[in-house]
Design goal:
The chain is built from one helix and four strands, in the order αββββ. By secondary structure, the chain is an alpha+beta fold. The chain has one domain: Pantoate--beta-alanine Ligase, Chain: A,domain 2 (2-Layer Sandwich).
């Protein structure tokens, strides 16, 4: 009889550990999905900027209408460069945020554009 009680206690503790690991796994999958979506949205925003071919220094921000809860900000700064690129090289940063869950769903992409102006 004692052996059965010990076996049930061990089984109960084991089930709690297994359930906790499953819950952690599910939350990590959710976080990974939000982070991946943020990276893809940042890449999309950068492609929109690149397609516009109107590279000017400044800041801009907005929200993704088709992805509620995700917003973006863009910063473009002139880079100190010598020679032919002087005054024409821009460092462009796109940041995507998901304010619903701080620390998840955030991404930043940085690239450099040469403005032929």
């Amino acid at each position: 009889m004692l052996e059965v009680l010990i076996a049930i206690a061990i089984l109960g503790v084991s089930m709690v550990v297994i359930l906790q690991s499953q819950l952690l796994s599910v939350s990590l999958v959710d976080r990974t999905l939000k982070d991946t979506k943020a990276v893809l949205l940042a890449e999309r925003r950068m492609a929109e900027i690149e397609a516009g071919e109107n590279y000017v220094a400044g800041e801009d921000a907005g929200e993704f209408e088709d992805f509620p809860g995700y917003s973006w900000s863009t910063t473009a700064n002139k880079v100190d460069a010598a020679g032919e690129a002087a005054g024409r090289l821009l460092r462009v940063s796109v940041k995507v945020f998901c304010p619903e869950v701080p620390g998840t769903g955030d991404a930043e992409i940085v690239t450099y554009f040469y403005s032929g102006e």
